[in-house]
# Entry
Amino acid sequence: MKTFDINNPQKRNPFSVPEGYFDNLTARIMEQIPETDVTATPTAELKPKNNRRWIGWTLGVAASIALAVFFVNLPNLFPSANGNQQTAQVETSDNYDEQYEQEMLEYAMVDNSDIYRYLAGGY
# Structure
C-alpha cells in the first residue's frame, strides 16, 4: 500500500484521457443517433397569444365597482327625494324596538315598580 504524506502532496492528476479521444467524438456521437424522417412529423400551427384579454376583464371589474358605489350612494345623492322615507323607516324601527321591549317585560311579568326598585338598588 502506498503511503500519503500530508506535507508533500502530489501535484499530478491520476486520471488521464486517451490520445485522440476528443478528435472524432462528435462524429462518433452522430453515428449513434438514429436517422428520422423530418417531413413525416406533424407540425402544429402556433397562433399569437391574445394579450389584450385582461383589458376587458379589468374594465368589467371597474365598471361593476363603479355601479355598486353609485347605487350605494344613491340616497345620499338625492336627499330630498328619499328624506321622508328614511325618517319613517327610523321611526318604524324605534316603535318596533319599544314594542319588543314591552312584550319582553310582560312575558317576564315585570312592571314599572320592579324596574324602579332595580334601578335604585333595591334588589
Residues 48-119 form one domain. The helical segments are 25-32, 53-72, 74-77, 79-107, 112-119.
